[in-house]
Every structure is written in structure tokens, then in C-alpha cells.
Design goal:
This protein is α/β, with parallel strands linked by helices. The chain is built from nine helices and nine strands. The chain has a single domain, classed as Rossmann fold (3-Layer(aba) Sandwich), CATH 3.40.50.720. Helix 1 packs across helix 8, helix 3 packs parallel to helix 4 and helix 4 packs parallel to helix 5. The longest helix is centred in the middle third of the chain and has 29 residues.
């Protein structure tokens, strides 16, 4: 039996992971900014699922949730950093009051929640699941701020994996493609300053035509995440779905092409040896 602390459980993967873990008999601390939105979800599981308020932009609430996990269940085995949302729009279209709050949630909130949980995890080991995205593998026009936030999640997760390995703590970076959650609905913001110059790269049409039509089954994705958390040989990177795999393969091929094309020129940059 594992004990999970999951952020962003009011909808999407956070909610489904909380339910999936509890349904198989694990203990879950499910959190959300507005705890009333998740209280009903916990009722069928009795004391095995508790719900707590956690606003990832407020480090004090993360510390309080960890303290409650210790008090109630004696520790944490799995931390899932799931809370987040996306801002669509070209870089020139975005305004600081739009993109800075997104970084506060997607990146800095993840950092503070992780820092709050690490003293507990270091005692007995465990797993940190950081929810990234196919957008954290490859950047594309129309979503640069969201890509940047998820690229940062990838970087800090890779660094954590090295730092925490001696403590028996694993890091799993989950990189979903499009799945049929409400992500394209309630979890998307559109930059207010829509400029006609960037209409070719706008993702507004993508949102309107794909919301509710994504091919990915989120319950199957959750089953894979649960399997990876249980596995002894789980990878650091876990692309989910055929589109995420296509993104990863395209990025790898492009990166390799760049490296190979300029290799002889770019490695000839050391001081000449006598």
C-alpha cells in the first residue's frame, strides 16, 4: 500500500490518479485550491482518502499538506505534481500579468511543493511524478509560454533525478499527448492581445476543434502511470500516447540532424594544444 500526495485533483489527470490509486487500495491525500470541489470524491473511500486545500502558489499550504500527511498516514510514498494550466498565444501577444501567473503555478508551485515533501521522502525513499507534456519535449509557435514552463519542468526533474537517487527517490516525468480530459476547456487561457500577424500560428482553432475530441483515453493513461510508479525499471521520461511518441521521435531526429550537420565546426572550439 502506497501513500500518495497529489496536487490539482479537481479535474483531469489529478482527479483520475487520485481515484485510480484509491480504488486499488492505496491511501491518497487529494488536494485542490478549492477543497470543496473534491470532498465528495473522497467519501467512498472512508479514511483512505483525505482532501486538503493546497494552492501551489502558496508554499505554506504545501507544508501544511505534508504535515497532515505525516499526521494521518505517517509519511508519503508518491508525490504527484499535477496542478497546472496553459496559456496560448504568440510571445508578442502575451502580457506579464498573463504569463507570470502561469509560471507561478506550473513551475514555481511544483518547486515549492517538492521542497515541502523532500524531507519526508528522503527518510524512506519514494517517487516524484512530475506532470509535463508533449509540450515539454518540443516547442511550437502559438504556445511558447506553456512550452517554456514545461521545458523548465523537464530540466528541474532531470536535475532532481540525479540529486535524489542516493536517497532512493525516483523521478518520473510524464509527458502526455492529447487525452480526453477537460484540459482544453478549463485549463487553457488565451492571450487577450490577439494579433492578426500571428493568425497562422494561433492555437485558438486547435482548442475549439479538439476539445472533447482527443483520441487519448485518460483512464488508460492513468493505468500506465500506476504501472510505472510500481515498476522497478521505470524510465525517467514517460511519453504517453502515440502523438507524444511522435513528438519525441521528431525532436530526437531534428536534434541529431543539427548535431551531425555542424559537428566538425562546433567541436573545434577548444584552445589549440601545443
Amino acid at each position: 500500500m502506497k501513500t500518495w500526495l497529489i496536487t490539482g485533483c479537481s479535474s483531469g489527470f489529478g482527479q483520475r490518479l487520485a481515484l485510480g490509486a484509491a480504488q486499488r487500495g492505496d491511501r491518497v491525500i487529494a488536494t485542490a485550491r478549492n477543497v470543496k470541489t473534491i470532498e465528495e470524491m473522497a467519501q467512498p473511500f472512508g479514511g483512505r482518502m483525505i482532501t486538503l486545500p493546497l494552492d501551489v502558489t502558496d508554499a505554506a499550504t504545501a507544508k501544511a499538506a505534508v504535515a497532515k500527511a505525516l499526521e494521518t498516514f505517517g509519511g508519503i510514498d508518491v508525490l504527484v505534481n499535477n496542478a497546472g494550466y496553459a496559456l496560448f498565444g504568440a510571445i508578442e501577444e502575451g502580457a506579464p500579468e498573463e504569463y507570470r501567473p502561469m509560471f507561478e503555478v506550473n513551475l514555481f508551485g511544483l518547486i515549492e511543493t517538492t521542497r515541502a515533501a523532500l524531507p519526508v521522502l528522503r527518510r524512506s525513499g519514494g517517487t516524484i511524478v512530475n506532470m509535463s507534456s508533449g509540450a515539454g519535449i518540443e516547442g511550437r509557435g502559438g504556445g511558447g509560454y506553456y512550452h517554456a514552463a514545461k521545458f523548465a519542468v523537464e530540466g528541474i526533474s532531470e536535475a532532481l533525478a540525479g540529486e535524489l537517487k542516493p536517497f532512493g527517490i525516483r523521478v518520473l516525468i510524464v509527458e502526455p499527448g492529447p487525452f480526453r480530459t477537460d484540459f482544453l476547456g478549463r485549463s487553457i487561457r488565451i492571450a487577450a492581445n490577439e494579433m492578426p500577424e500571428y493568425s497562422a500560428s494561433s492555437r485558438k482553432h486547435y482548442r475549439e476543434t479538439n476539445d472533447g475530441n482527443q483520441a487519448g483515453d485518460p483512464d488508460k493513461a492513468v493505468a500506465v502511470i500506476l504501472q510505472a510508479v510500481d515498476a522497478d525499471d521505470a524510465p525517467l521520461h514517460l511519453p504517453l500516447g502515440p502523438i507524444a511518441h511522435s513528438i519525441a521521435e521528431r525532436k530526437l531526429a531534428s536534434f541529431r540532424s543539427d548535431i551531425d550537420a555542424w559537428r566538425d565546426i562546433t567541436i573545434a572550439t577548444d584552445f589549440d594544444q601545443p
